[in-house]
Amino acid sequence: MKKRVLVITAIIIAIILTCGFYIWDGYESKQLEMPDSYQAIMNRGYLIVGVKTDTKPFGFKDKDGKLTGLDIDIAKAIAKFLFRNENRLKLVSVTPSDRLIKLTTGEVDIVIATMTVTPQRLDLIDFSHSYFIAGQTILVPQNSKITSIADLAGKEAGVIFGTTAEKNLRTLVPTARVLGYKTYDEAYKALKEGTIKAITSDDTILRNYALNDKSVKIINKRYSKEPYAVGVRKGKENKILLEKVNFVIKTLIMNNSINRLYAKWGLK
Question: What does DSSP say about strands 226-233 and 125-134: parallel, antiparallel, or unpaired?
C-alpha cells in the first residue's frame, strides 16, 4: 500500500513539473515576441511616415515650405482611418538610398515614397496593394537626339541612388556611363550643366521638370512598369498594420477617391 502511494505521488509530481515547464516555456516565448506595431502606434497617438520632399507631385515642399503631394495625401488618409484625425501624423524625410534603412530600423512606421514593388525589396519588407502605376523614361535637353533607352550606350546618364531606374539602366544598357545622385534636383542640375546627357527615372517625376522648363523634354516611350506601394516592416507583429494600410488603399480605389487624387496632382 505504501509503495502504491509513493508511485502515485511520483506520478503527480512529474505531471506538475511537466505542466509547469510548458507554462513557463509558453510565458517565456510570449515575452520574446515583438510588440504589435499597430498597437504601439495607437498607444503613441500618431503615425510616423517616411516621405520624399523633392519629388513633385508625390512628396515635395510647397512655396510655404509645407510638405504636400499624392503620397502625403495617402499618409493623411491612413492617419484619418486610424485616429479619425489626419493630423495625427509625423512626416519624416527619406531618400531612395535611406528609406529602407529608416523603415527596417524603426525610425518610421511605414514608407510612402514613390517606392516600386520589386522582388529584391520583397525580401526585405512587405508592401501594401499598389496605389499608382508609373513607368520609367528619359529626360534630355530639348535639342538632344536621344530617342530611346538604347541611345544611352556610351553616354553619361544620371540616376538617383537606390532607385529601380539605376538597376534597370545598368541592366538594359551596360555600356552607359552611369552617374548617381542623391536627389532629383542634383541630377537635374547636372543635366543643365551638361555633366550628363540624360536622366532616367519615372515619367511622373520627370514630367514636372519638362513642364516647368522648356529647354528639356521627356521621351514619351516608357521602358518599364513601376507599381508604387506603401512599405511596411516584415514580421507577424506588423500584420495588423499592413491589413489596416491595405484597407485604406482598397477603399480609396473602390470609392474612386484615388482618381480624384490623381486629378488633383495632375496624374490623369
Answer: antiparallel
Diameter of the chain by CA atoms? 107
Element (H, E) at 122: helix 119-122
Residue 79 DSSP code: H
Give pLDDT tens digits for 82-91.
Answer: 999 999 999 9
**Residue range 138-167, pLDDT digits in tens:** 999 999 999 999 999 999 999 999 899 999
Cα–Cα nearest to 244, from 71, 119, 69, 77: 77
pLDDT digits (tens, 9 = 90+) for 104-137: 999 999 999 999 999 999 999 999 999 999 999 9
pLDDT digits (tens, 9 = 90+) for 162-174: 899 999 999 999 9
Q: Beta strands of the chain (E only): which ranges? A: 47-51, 54-55, 59-61, 67-68, 89-93, 110-111, 125-134, 136-141, 156-160, 177-181, 198-202, 216-219, 226-233
Which amino acid is present at 263?
A
Task: Please report, for residues 10, 13, 18, 27, 136, the alpha-carbon distance to residue 7 in angstroms, rounded to integers and kept in the order given.
Answer: 5, 10, 16, 30, 77
Q: Which helix (H) or strand (E) holds 14?
A: helix 2-32
Alpha-carbon gap, residue 243 to 135, rounded angstroms: 27
User: With contact defined as beta carbons under 8 Å apart, do 182 and 160 qualify?
Assistant: yes
**pLDDT one-digit tens code per residue, 239-254:** 999 999 999 999 999 9
Stated pTM of the model: 0.82
Rounded CA separation 29/50 (Å): 32
